[in-house]
Write a structure and sequence with these properties.
The chain has eleven helices and no strands. The protein is mostly helical and about 200 residues long.
Length: about 200
């Protein structure tokens, strides 16, 4: 039986253990997190924790799986947008900022970089449940907008990737490398407006 299959996902304290583990792992990383601290944060005994998870590695994987599942389910339904390309792109841009510059996303990204050798499967899991889901939502909307004659895009897949990059301009690397931790609404608006106008100048009809 593999480790993931041995996780007991029922019981009244399962979510409690998972929430405590998530708090500690995001703050301390995998290596820095201790089972004692996780049990304390969860408000359970170590015996209770081990009744759900046989070891710290399995618990870490379950935390990542849970966060990735939340990411995959959190996106807006861009395909249902009927407020024109600029309106839909604004919703998409705001979600790009929420996904790529949210605290949990950034913390996980840093942990995955640090633990790439120990957990090579984590990067793809996070990428496919977050950035790639968002990319697919934008791509699917762009195809619909092309069919409506609202946009002229020869390659919707590439255009979706380009729009996401435009939304990251100027502020994302500053955020990633801890140069700036917070951005004002005006700073975010500057980037979002610039992304939309640049995209529409290239693909608008």
């Amino acid at each position: 039986m593999n480790q993931q299959a041995s996780v007991l996902r029922t019981g009244r304290k399962f979510d409690q253990v998972l929430a405590g583990a998530r708090e500690v792992f995001l703050a301390d990383g995998f290596e820095g997190a201790s089972v004692d601290n996780i049990a304390k944060a969860a408000g359970v005994s170590k015996a209770t924790l081990y009744s759900y998870f046989p070891d710290k590695r399995v618990l870490f994987m379950e935390v990542v799986r849970s966060v990735c599942g939340q990411q995959a389910d959190s996106g807006p339904d861009l395909a249902a947008g009927d407020c024109g390309p600029r309106g839909v792109l604004r919703v998409a841009a705001e979600h790009v900022h929420a996904v790529l510059m949210g605290g949990i996303s950034l913390q996980l990204f840093r942990i995955f970089v640090a633990e790439a050798d120990r957990f090579p499967e984590l990067g793809p899991m996070f990428y496919e449940s977050g950035p790639m889901v968002l990319h697919g939502q934008i791509r699917d909307y762009l195809k619909i907008a092309v069919e409506r004659g609202e946009l002229a895009i020869p390659d919707a897949d590439l255009a979706a990737a380009q729009f996401i990059e435009l939304c990251k301009a100027d502020i994302f690397l500053r955020f990633l490398f801890n140069i700036d931790e917070h951005f004002t609404e005006a700073e975010r608006e500057r980037v979002i407006t610039g992304a939309i106008e640049t995209f529409m100048a290239r693909f608008g009809t």
